[in-house]
């Protein structure tokens, strides 16, 4: 009987455990134990029901084009619970000099594919519009080294597009800065487009034509009717309580001759293999004695923190808000709000028809200090800025704040090179796998894939990698 330990009960660790459970039920001679330091599973995925509204503490959805999360939901019997974003209302605004300006039609994640709407947009200056036209003449090239997203986008479109689109878009996803994030790690598709077409615009149009030809146009986001917590609850229901140890932080790891020793809550246990599915800084701390060089490399992966604030309002506020999914705030505006989502438009199932649900994002690498403020002060700041931006004076019916300290991995310039070194060092340590958002994707689908691959990697090394009924493939090796 082989024994595997999983440290970390977020979606990556849960996906790893689900993979092991599928193989165990198929007859593989193994058992596993999951150690989670908090009193609940799911990590940053958590959902509350407040006055008939679905309030997400962490991620509210996942990208439809990345299949691993939706596939897992279907395996868990949640296929009928999947819902998609209301893309008919998918308008997003950018705050420019205190005014909300819509992102024009024909822009696909900052890349213009239709010039006429861009030309008539007030979002960009004439100089930027001219650069967008000239960008179509760019020739294929392969930069010799990694660069920041800001440098890459500036080469194609100029600094204004970095400030008004690239930086706020990435701030909303990563909580980081375009000037620090690696284009090869964060936007690898753009790097490939530049190498094959030169012009991002020409490449995007070609890709779009192929999508239309294949009739594969899909909504941008997918979620679950009652919130992302449904996925966590469905996963937890698959495991025997004896396999899950909540409120049990691991205090020490020891690399043994034929496995691992784990100390947690005053007890020791021994395992053949180990999956660490924690943030990289937590993994580094755990591995400090057993693998000091690997620990040092893991510590070099940076993180940012975030605050989400969701406020519910009545029907009068709902009717007064602009149509669309919400707005983004560039750094140059000097606001503390990074973005706001009109949840009732993005996912109509999340709120009754007589309620408005506004979700605000604060913090990130530009404002770590806000995590230290009391909740009433954060609410005051957000309400003041919503008043200035939207003219919203109404008192919210309810408010929920969630603080996430050092939860968002930052794929800074050179990230892929760091991962290569981490992989080489990890491969020198028998029976160890790593999973989580620190490596090759921070979204829920990426974390699902990461946990699944970590489990399959260990099963393979132990000779237990036979297929299990209903088990989906994890995708290609990262």
Overview of the structural elements:
- The protein has 478 residues and is α+β, with helices and mostly antiparallel strands.
- It has three domains: 2-43 and 232-301 and 412-461, 3-Layer(bba) Sandwich (FAD/NAD(P)-binding domain), CATH 3.50.50; 47-88 and 303-410, Protoporphyrinogen oxidase, mitochondrial, domain 2 (Polyamine Oxidase, Chain A, domain 2, Alpha-Beta Complex); 104-213, protoporphyrinogen ix oxidase, domain 3.
- Helices cover 36% and strands 23% of the residues.
- The protein has 17 helices and 22 strands.
- It has helices spanning 11-25, 68-75, 115-119, 126-135, 149-157, 159-174, 183-186, 188-196, 200-213, 229-236, 280-286, 292-299, 315-320, 343-346, 375-390, 415-427, 444-461, and strands spanning 2-7, 30-35, 47-50, 53-56, 62-63, 82-84, 92-96, 99-102, 107-108, 111-112, 221-224, 244-245, 250-256, 259-264, 267-271, 273-276, 302-313, 326-328, 337-342, 356-363, 398-410, 432-434.
- The strands form six sheets. A seven-stranded mixed sheet has the order 8-7-18-19-20-17-21. A five-stranded parallel sheet has the order 12-2-1-16-22, with helices on one face. A three-stranded antiparallel sheet has the order 5-11-6.
- A hairpin with a 2-residue loop joins strand 3 (47-50) and strand 4.
- Helix 2 packs across helix 17 (444-461), helix 5 (149-157) runs antiparallel to helix 6 (159-174) and helix 12 packs antiparallel against helix 16 (415-427).
- The longest helix is centred in the last third of the chain and has 18 residues, at 444-461.
- Mean pLDDT is 93; it is low at 471-478.
